[in-house]
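Record pair follows.
FIRST:
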Amino acid sequence: MKMKKLNRVSTASYIFLGVVCFFSVFPFYWMVMAATNKSADIISGKLTPGLYLFSNIKSMLETVSMGRAFWNSLRTSILQTLLSILVCSAAGYGFQVYRDKKKDLLMSILLLSMMIPFASTMIPLFRMFSKVKLLNTTVGFILPSISTAFLIFFFRQNSQSFPVEIIQAARVDGLSEFQIYAGVYCPIMAPTFAAAAIVTFMSAWNNYMWPLIVMQSQKMQTMPLLVTGLTAGYTTDYGLLMLSVTIMTLPTVVLFFTQQKRFVEGVVGSVK
Protein backbone atom coordinates (compact mmCIF):
# COMPACT_ATOMS: atom_id res chain seq x y z
CA MET A 1 0.00 0.00 0.00
CA LYS A 2 2.79 2.39 0.90
CA MET A 3 4.61 1.66 -2.38
CA LYS A 4 1.44 2.30 -4.40
CA LYS A 5 0.89 5.57 -2.56
CA LEU A 6 4.50 6.60 -3.19
CA ASN A 7 4.19 5.72 -6.87
CA ARG A 8 1.02 7.79 -7.15
CA VAL A 9 2.68 10.74 -5.47
CA SER A 10 5.75 10.52 -7.70
CA THR A 11 3.60 10.19 -10.82
CA ALA A 12 1.54 13.22 -9.84
CA SER A 13 4.77 15.14 -9.12
CA TYR A 14 6.19 14.33 -12.56
CA ILE A 15 2.94 15.34 -14.25
CA PHE A 16 2.88 18.63 -12.35
CA LEU A 17 6.55 19.32 -13.15
CA GLY A 18 5.92 18.46 -16.80
CA VAL A 19 3.04 20.93 -17.02
CA VAL A 20 5.08 23.68 -15.32
CA CYS A 21 8.04 22.95 -17.62
CA PHE A 22 5.79 23.18 -20.68
CA PHE A 23 4.40 26.59 -19.70
CA SER A 24 7.93 27.79 -18.88
CA VAL A 25 9.52 26.66 -22.14
CA PHE A 26 6.64 27.41 -24.52
CA PRO A 27 7.23 31.22 -24.70
CA PHE A 28 10.85 30.60 -25.73
CA TYR A 29 9.74 28.05 -28.33
CA TRP A 30 7.14 30.46 -29.71
CA MET A 31 9.73 33.25 -29.81
CA VAL A 32 12.19 31.18 -31.85
CA MET A 33 9.48 29.91 -34.22
CA ALA A 34 8.14 33.44 -34.71
CA ALA A 35 11.63 34.60 -35.73
CA THR A 36 11.39 32.30 -38.77
CA ASN A 37 7.95 33.51 -39.90
CA LYS A 38 6.47 36.69 -41.35
CA SER A 39 4.09 39.01 -39.54
CA ALA A 40 0.90 37.55 -41.05
CA ASP A 41 1.82 34.02 -39.93
CA ILE A 42 2.73 35.20 -36.42
CA ILE A 43 -0.55 37.10 -36.04
CA SER A 44 -2.48 34.02 -37.20
CA GLY A 45 -0.80 31.97 -34.44
CA LYS A 46 1.51 29.74 -36.47
CA LEU A 47 3.68 27.62 -34.14
CA THR A 48 5.83 25.75 -36.68
CA PRO A 49 9.09 26.86 -38.35
CA GLY A 50 8.73 29.13 -41.36
CA LEU A 51 10.82 30.03 -44.40
CA TYR A 52 11.38 33.71 -43.63
CA LEU A 53 14.38 33.56 -41.28
CA PHE A 54 16.85 34.89 -43.85
CA SER A 55 14.32 37.48 -44.98
CA ASN A 56 14.00 38.69 -41.38
CA ILE A 57 17.79 38.75 -41.02
CA LYS A 58 18.11 40.81 -44.19
CA SER A 59 15.41 43.20 -42.97
CA MET A 60 17.19 43.51 -39.61
CA LEU A 61 20.52 44.35 -41.24
CA GLU A 62 18.88 46.97 -43.45
CA THR A 63 16.65 48.53 -40.78
CA VAL A 64 18.53 48.64 -37.47
CA SER A 65 22.11 48.73 -36.19
CA MET A 66 21.90 45.41 -34.35
CA GLY A 67 25.67 44.88 -34.08
CA ARG A 68 26.30 48.28 -32.53
CA ALA A 69 23.41 47.96 -30.05
CA PHE A 70 24.53 44.45 -29.12
CA TRP A 71 28.09 45.65 -28.50
CA ASN A 72 26.88 48.62 -26.44
CA SER A 73 24.79 46.35 -24.22
CA LEU A 74 27.54 43.75 -23.92
CA ARG A 75 30.22 46.30 -23.05
CA THR A 76 28.19 48.17 -20.47
CA SER A 77 26.78 44.99 -18.91
CA ILE A 78 30.20 43.37 -18.48
CA LEU A 79 31.74 46.52 -17.01
CA GLN A 80 28.82 47.02 -14.64
CA THR A 81 28.96 43.38 -13.55
CA LEU A 82 32.69 43.44 -12.82
CA LEU A 83 32.61 46.73 -10.94
CA SER A 84 29.45 45.86 -9.00
CA ILE A 85 30.86 42.52 -7.86
CA LEU A 86 34.16 44.11 -6.85
CA VAL A 87 32.55 46.93 -4.82
CA CYS A 88 29.66 44.98 -3.30
CA SER A 89 31.72 41.91 -2.39
CA ALA A 90 34.27 44.09 -0.62
CA ALA A 91 31.46 45.89 1.22
CA GLY A 92 29.74 42.63 2.19
CA TYR A 93 33.07 41.19 3.34
CA GLY A 94 33.74 44.26 5.46
CA PHE A 95 30.27 44.25 7.02
CA GLN A 96 30.71 40.65 8.16
CA VAL A 97 34.41 40.42 9.05
CA TYR A 98 35.15 43.70 10.82
CA ARG A 99 33.60 44.26 14.22
CA ASP A 100 31.86 47.59 14.71
CA LYS A 101 28.79 48.49 16.75
CA LYS A 102 27.51 50.91 14.11
CA LYS A 103 27.77 48.58 11.12
CA ASP A 104 24.36 46.97 11.80
CA LEU A 105 22.76 50.42 11.84
CA LEU A 106 24.46 51.28 8.54
CA MET A 107 23.30 47.97 7.06
CA SER A 108 19.74 48.72 8.16
CA ILE A 109 19.92 52.10 6.42
CA LEU A 110 21.16 50.40 3.24
CA LEU A 111 18.29 47.92 3.35
CA LEU A 112 15.81 50.74 3.86
CA SER A 113 17.17 52.37 0.70
CA MET A 114 15.82 49.38 -1.26
CA MET A 115 12.31 50.70 -0.53
CA ILE A 116 12.98 53.92 -2.46
CA PRO A 117 11.66 53.51 -6.04
CA PHE A 118 13.97 54.43 -8.89
CA ALA A 119 11.36 56.84 -10.26
CA SER A 120 11.87 59.12 -7.26
CA THR A 121 15.63 59.39 -7.89
CA MET A 122 15.50 59.45 -11.67
CA ILE A 123 15.17 63.22 -12.11
CA PRO A 124 17.88 64.15 -9.56
CA LEU A 125 20.23 61.62 -11.16
CA PHE A 126 19.58 63.02 -14.63
CA ARG A 127 20.23 66.61 -13.51
CA MET A 128 23.38 65.55 -11.68
CA PHE A 129 24.75 63.60 -14.65
CA SER A 130 23.87 66.35 -17.13
CA LYS A 131 25.81 68.90 -15.05
CA VAL A 132 28.94 66.73 -14.95
CA LYS A 133 28.50 65.88 -18.69
CA LEU A 134 28.10 62.12 -18.27
CA LEU A 135 25.13 61.75 -20.62
CA ASN A 136 25.71 59.40 -23.58
CA THR A 137 28.68 57.80 -21.82
CA THR A 138 29.40 54.33 -20.50
CA VAL A 139 30.30 55.83 -17.12
CA GLY A 140 26.89 57.48 -16.96
CA PHE A 141 25.23 54.14 -17.67
CA ILE A 142 26.99 52.04 -15.03
CA LEU A 143 27.72 54.54 -12.24
CA PRO A 144 24.27 54.51 -10.51
CA SER A 145 24.30 50.69 -10.32
CA ILE A 146 27.87 49.97 -9.24
CA SER A 147 26.86 49.64 -5.60
CA THR A 148 23.44 48.19 -4.72
CA ALA A 149 21.99 47.37 -1.30
CA PHE A 150 20.79 43.99 -2.59
CA LEU A 151 24.23 42.79 -3.68
CA ILE A 152 25.91 44.07 -0.49
CA PHE A 153 23.31 42.23 1.59
CA PHE A 154 23.73 39.13 -0.60
CA PHE A 155 27.50 39.00 -0.03
CA ARG A 156 27.10 39.80 3.66
CA GLN A 157 24.67 36.92 4.16
CA ASN A 158 26.93 34.47 2.35
CA SER A 159 29.96 35.72 4.29
CA GLN A 160 28.32 34.59 7.53
CA SER A 161 29.22 31.00 6.65
CA PHE A 162 32.83 31.96 5.84
CA PRO A 163 35.20 30.54 8.51
CA VAL A 164 36.70 33.42 10.49
CA GLU A 165 39.57 31.16 11.64
CA ILE A 166 41.01 31.21 8.12
CA ILE A 167 41.16 35.01 8.19
CA GLN A 168 42.82 34.99 11.61
CA ALA A 169 45.37 32.41 10.44
CA ALA A 170 46.12 34.48 7.33
CA ARG A 171 46.70 37.56 9.48
CA VAL A 172 49.10 35.60 11.67
CA ASP A 173 50.97 34.55 8.52
CA GLY A 174 51.45 38.23 7.67
CA LEU A 175 48.99 38.65 4.81
CA SER A 176 47.50 42.08 4.29
CA GLU A 177 43.74 42.62 4.31
CA PHE A 178 43.71 42.97 0.52
CA GLN A 179 45.67 39.72 0.12
CA ILE A 180 43.21 37.94 2.41
CA TYR A 181 40.27 39.28 0.43
CA ALA A 182 41.74 38.54 -3.02
CA GLY A 183 43.62 35.32 -2.26
CA VAL A 184 41.51 33.66 0.42
CA TYR A 185 37.98 35.06 0.46
CA CYS A 186 37.30 35.32 -3.28
CA PRO A 187 38.32 31.74 -4.27
CA ILE A 188 36.30 30.18 -1.45
CA MET A 189 33.24 32.32 -2.25
CA ALA A 190 33.35 31.56 -6.00
CA PRO A 191 29.74 30.22 -6.15
CA THR A 192 28.50 33.42 -4.52
CA PHE A 193 30.41 35.51 -7.07
CA ALA A 194 28.91 33.44 -9.91
CA ALA A 195 25.36 33.91 -8.63
CA ALA A 196 25.92 37.64 -8.14
CA ALA A 197 27.44 37.93 -11.63
CA ILE A 198 24.43 36.28 -13.26
CA VAL A 199 21.93 38.47 -11.40
CA THR A 200 23.90 41.66 -12.08
CA PHE A 201 24.53 40.91 -15.76
CA MET A 202 20.87 40.09 -16.41
CA SER A 203 19.79 43.27 -14.63
CA ALA A 204 22.25 45.39 -16.61
CA TRP A 205 21.46 43.67 -19.92
CA ASN A 206 17.69 44.13 -19.53
CA ASN A 207 17.90 47.64 -18.05
CA TYR A 208 15.58 49.94 -19.96
CA MET A 209 14.53 52.99 -17.96
CA TRP A 210 17.95 54.47 -17.11
CA PRO A 211 19.50 53.89 -20.58
CA LEU A 212 16.40 55.50 -22.08
CA ILE A 213 17.21 58.64 -20.07
CA VAL A 214 21.00 58.75 -20.19
CA MET A 215 21.69 57.26 -23.65
CA GLN A 216 20.22 59.94 -25.89
CA SER A 217 22.08 59.25 -29.14
CA GLN A 218 21.63 56.43 -31.62
CA LYS A 219 25.29 55.49 -31.33
CA MET A 220 24.87 54.64 -27.63
CA GLN A 221 21.61 52.71 -28.07
CA THR A 222 21.36 49.42 -26.18
CA MET A 223 19.40 46.27 -27.06
CA PRO A 224 16.28 47.03 -24.96
CA LEU A 225 16.04 50.46 -26.58
CA LEU A 226 16.49 49.00 -30.05
CA VAL A 227 13.82 46.34 -29.50
CA THR A 228 11.38 48.90 -28.10
CA GLY A 229 12.02 51.15 -31.10
CA LEU A 230 10.84 48.38 -33.44
CA THR A 231 7.31 48.77 -32.07
CA ALA A 232 7.20 52.56 -32.33
CA GLY A 233 6.07 52.79 -35.96
CA TYR A 234 2.60 52.67 -37.51
CA THR A 235 3.05 49.01 -38.42
CA THR A 236 5.17 46.44 -36.63
CA ASP A 237 7.21 43.77 -38.41
CA TYR A 238 6.71 40.97 -35.91
CA GLY A 239 9.16 38.66 -37.65
CA LEU A 240 11.92 41.26 -37.31
CA LEU A 241 10.80 42.03 -33.75
CA MET A 242 10.90 38.40 -32.59
CA LEU A 243 14.25 37.82 -34.29
CA SER A 244 15.67 40.81 -32.40
CA VAL A 245 14.19 39.54 -29.13
CA THR A 246 15.72 36.11 -29.76
CA ILE A 247 19.16 37.64 -30.32
CA MET A 248 18.73 39.77 -27.22
CA THR A 249 17.88 36.69 -25.12
CA LEU A 250 20.89 34.59 -26.17
CA PRO A 251 23.61 36.08 -23.88
CA THR A 252 21.57 35.70 -20.69
CA VAL A 253 20.56 32.14 -21.64
CA VAL A 254 24.16 31.14 -22.35
CA LEU A 255 25.39 32.76 -19.13
CA PHE A 256 22.76 31.07 -16.98
CA PHE A 257 23.21 27.56 -18.40
CA THR A 258 27.01 27.71 -18.24
CA GLN A 259 26.95 28.94 -14.62
CA GLN A 260 23.76 27.18 -13.46
CA LYS A 261 25.46 24.90 -10.93
CA ARG A 262 27.37 27.72 -9.26
CA PHE A 263 24.29 29.92 -9.32
CA VAL A 264 22.31 27.32 -7.34
CA GLU A 265 25.22 26.85 -4.94
CA GLY A 266 25.48 30.60 -4.39
CA VAL A 267 21.76 31.05 -3.79
CA VAL A 268 21.63 28.10 -1.39
CA GLY A 269 24.64 29.52 0.42
CA SER A 270 22.91 32.85 0.90
CA VAL A 271 19.93 31.09 2.51
CA LYS A 272 22.16 29.27 4.97
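SECOND:
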Amino acid sequence: MTNPDEPADFRPTHVVPQEGLHAWEAPDTSRPTTPLDAFLPVQLLSRRGEWAEILCANGWSAWVDGRLLVPVPQPPPTGGRPLTRAEDPRPLLSRTAEALDRYRRASDEFGSGRLDAEGFRRGTRGLKAGMVLDGEAVWLYDDASGRWMYGEGTRLTTYAVAAGPGASAPSAAPAGPSDEGGDR
Protein backbone atom coordinates (compact mmCIF):
# COMPACT_ATOMS: atom_id res chain seq x y z
CA MET A 1 0.00 0.00 0.00
CA THR A 2 1.39 3.44 -0.89
CA ASN A 3 1.18 6.57 1.17
CA PRO A 4 -0.52 9.40 -0.81
CA ASP A 5 1.75 11.94 0.94
CA GLU A 6 4.91 10.06 -0.11
CA PRO A 7 6.57 10.99 -3.41
CA ALA A 8 6.39 8.04 -5.84
CA ASP A 9 10.17 7.93 -6.30
CA PHE A 10 11.09 8.30 -2.61
CA ARG A 11 13.69 5.71 -1.65
CA PRO A 12 15.40 6.27 1.68
CA THR A 13 19.18 6.26 1.46
CA HIS A 14 19.84 7.36 5.04
CA VAL A 15 18.18 7.77 8.43
CA VAL A 16 18.53 10.54 10.95
CA PRO A 17 20.75 9.54 13.91
CA GLN A 18 19.09 8.61 17.21
CA GLU A 19 19.82 12.09 18.64
CA GLY A 20 17.76 13.76 15.90
CA LEU A 21 19.28 16.34 13.57
CA HIS A 22 19.22 20.10 13.15
CA ALA A 23 18.03 21.22 9.73
CA TRP A 24 18.29 24.40 7.67
CA GLU A 25 16.39 25.89 4.72
CA ALA A 26 19.65 26.30 2.79
CA PRO A 27 23.29 25.35 3.37
CA ASP A 28 23.60 28.32 5.73
CA THR A 29 23.44 28.15 9.54
CA SER A 30 21.61 31.49 9.71
CA ARG A 31 18.43 29.90 8.27
CA PRO A 32 17.41 27.12 10.70
CA THR A 33 14.20 25.17 10.26
CA THR A 34 12.40 22.41 12.15
CA PRO A 35 14.80 19.76 13.52
CA LEU A 36 14.41 16.21 12.20
CA ASP A 37 13.19 13.37 14.41
CA ALA A 38 15.41 10.44 15.32
CA PHE A 39 15.45 7.54 12.84
CA LEU A 40 13.48 9.48 10.21
CA PRO A 41 14.13 7.92 6.78
CA VAL A 42 15.48 10.46 4.28
CA GLN A 43 16.76 10.43 0.73
CA LEU A 44 20.05 12.16 -0.03
CA LEU A 45 19.53 14.51 -2.98
CA SER A 46 22.87 16.32 -3.18
CA ARG A 47 25.99 17.31 -1.27
CA ARG A 48 27.78 20.60 -0.97
CA GLY A 49 30.88 20.03 1.16
CA GLU A 50 29.69 18.83 4.56
CA TRP A 51 26.13 19.92 3.80
CA ALA A 52 23.58 17.41 2.51
CA GLU A 53 20.28 18.23 0.88
CA ILE A 54 17.72 15.63 1.95
CA LEU A 55 14.16 14.74 1.03
CA CYS A 56 11.68 13.37 3.56
CA ALA A 57 8.93 10.88 2.69
CA ASN A 58 6.29 13.64 2.90
CA GLY A 59 8.06 15.70 0.19
CA TRP A 60 9.66 18.19 2.60
CA SER A 61 13.34 18.93 1.94
CA ALA A 62 16.03 20.54 4.05
CA TRP A 63 19.79 20.87 4.43
CA VAL A 64 21.63 19.00 7.21
CA ASP A 65 25.15 18.14 8.29
CA GLY A 66 25.64 15.21 5.91
CA ARG A 67 28.41 13.71 8.05
CA LEU A 68 25.82 12.79 10.67
CA LEU A 69 23.39 10.90 8.42
CA VAL A 70 23.34 7.11 8.91
CA PRO A 71 23.43 5.21 5.59
CA VAL A 72 20.77 2.60 4.95
CA PRO A 73 22.37 -0.57 3.58
CA GLN A 74 21.23 -1.04 0.02
CA PRO A 75 20.94 -4.51 -1.43
CA PRO A 76 22.52 -5.01 -4.83
CA PRO A 77 20.32 -4.14 -7.81
CA THR A 78 18.88 -7.34 -9.21
CA GLY A 79 16.39 -6.04 -11.76
CA GLY A 80 13.61 -7.77 -9.83
CA ARG A 81 15.32 -11.16 -10.05
CA PRO A 82 16.41 -13.01 -6.92
CA LEU A 83 20.15 -13.25 -6.34
CA THR A 84 21.67 -16.50 -7.45
CA ARG A 85 24.19 -17.92 -5.04
CA ALA A 86 27.24 -18.98 -6.94
CA GLU A 87 30.67 -18.75 -5.40
CA ASP A 88 32.30 -19.69 -2.11
CA PRO A 89 33.57 -16.41 -0.56
CA ARG A 90 36.50 -17.95 1.32
CA PRO A 91 39.10 -17.90 -1.52
CA LEU A 92 38.33 -14.26 -2.32
CA LEU A 93 38.36 -13.36 1.39
CA SER A 94 41.81 -15.00 1.67
CA ARG A 95 43.18 -13.10 -1.36
CA THR A 96 41.78 -9.84 0.04
CA ALA A 97 43.37 -10.52 3.44
CA GLU A 98 46.73 -11.35 1.79
CA ALA A 99 46.69 -8.12 -0.25
CA LEU A 100 45.79 -6.09 2.84
CA ASP A 101 48.55 -7.82 4.83
CA ARG A 102 51.13 -7.06 2.11
CA TYR A 103 50.07 -3.41 2.10
CA ARG A 104 50.13 -3.23 5.92
CA ARG A 105 53.66 -4.71 6.08
CA ALA A 106 54.95 -2.31 3.39
CA SER A 107 53.26 0.61 5.13
CA ASP A 108 54.78 -0.37 8.49
CA GLU A 109 58.25 -0.59 6.94
CA PHE A 110 57.83 2.70 5.08
CA GLY A 111 56.49 4.46 8.18
CA SER A 112 59.35 3.20 10.36
CA GLY A 113 62.00 4.24 7.82
CA ARG A 114 63.11 0.68 6.98
CA LEU A 115 61.81 1.17 3.43
CA ASP A 116 62.12 4.18 1.13
CA ALA A 117 59.37 5.53 -1.16
CA GLU A 118 60.58 3.52 -4.18
CA GLY A 119 60.68 0.32 -2.10
CA PHE A 120 57.14 1.06 -0.90
CA ARG A 121 55.98 1.51 -4.52
CA ARG A 122 57.65 -1.77 -5.54
CA GLY A 123 56.19 -3.61 -2.55
CA THR A 124 52.65 -2.43 -3.27
CA ARG A 125 52.76 -2.53 -7.08
CA GLY A 126 49.88 -4.53 -8.50
CA LEU A 127 47.96 -4.73 -5.23
CA LYS A 128 44.22 -4.24 -5.54
CA ALA A 129 41.69 -5.10 -2.88
CA GLY A 130 38.27 -3.89 -1.96
CA MET A 131 36.01 -4.91 0.87
CA VAL A 132 32.98 -3.46 2.60
CA LEU A 133 31.52 -5.23 5.60
CA ASP A 134 28.11 -4.30 6.94
CA GLY A 135 26.93 -6.87 9.45
CA GLU A 136 26.25 -10.08 7.56
CA ALA A 137 26.56 -8.40 4.14
CA VAL A 138 29.93 -8.23 2.39
CA TRP A 139 31.06 -6.66 -0.88
CA LEU A 140 34.43 -7.94 -2.15
CA TYR A 141 36.40 -6.78 -5.18
CA ASP A 142 37.70 -9.66 -7.29
CA ASP A 143 40.68 -8.19 -9.14
CA ALA A 144 41.19 -11.36 -11.18
CA SER A 145 37.80 -10.95 -12.87
CA GLY A 146 37.30 -7.18 -12.47
CA ARG A 147 34.03 -7.39 -10.57
CA TRP A 148 32.51 -6.64 -7.21
CA MET A 149 30.91 -9.62 -5.49
CA TYR A 150 28.11 -9.49 -2.91
CA GLY A 151 27.38 -12.09 -0.27
CA GLU A 152 25.68 -12.79 3.02
CA GLY A 153 27.72 -15.60 4.52
CA THR A 154 28.38 -18.67 2.47
CA ARG A 155 27.93 -17.64 -1.18
CA LEU A 156 28.89 -14.71 -3.41
CA THR A 157 27.22 -13.40 -6.53
CA THR A 158 28.34 -10.74 -9.00
CA TYR A 159 27.23 -7.28 -7.86
CA ALA A 160 28.92 -5.04 -10.44
CA VAL A 161 31.63 -5.30 -13.07
CA ALA A 162 34.52 -2.88 -13.54
CA ALA A 163 34.28 -2.90 -17.36
CA GLY A 164 31.43 -3.25 -19.82
CA PRO A 165 30.46 -6.36 -21.76
CA GLY A 166 33.18 -7.74 -24.00
CA ALA A 167 35.98 -5.93 -22.17
CA SER A 168 38.81 -8.09 -20.94
CA ALA A 169 39.27 -8.51 -17.20
CA PRO A 170 42.17 -6.66 -15.60
CA SER A 171 45.32 -8.66 -15.01
CA ALA A 172 45.56 -10.23 -11.59
CA ALA A 173 48.01 -8.87 -9.05
CA PRO A 174 50.94 -11.08 -8.07
CA ALA A 175 50.09 -13.32 -5.15
CA GLY A 176 53.27 -12.89 -3.14
CA PRO A 177 55.87 -10.26 -2.27
CA SER A 178 57.56 -8.45 -5.15
CA ASP A 179 60.59 -10.24 -6.63
CA GLU A 180 62.43 -6.93 -6.69
CA GLY A 181 62.20 -6.39 -2.96
CA GLY A 182 62.56 -9.92 -1.60
CA ASP A 183 60.50 -11.21 1.31
CA ARG A 184 59.09 -8.49 3.54
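COMMENT: The radius of gyration is 22 Å.
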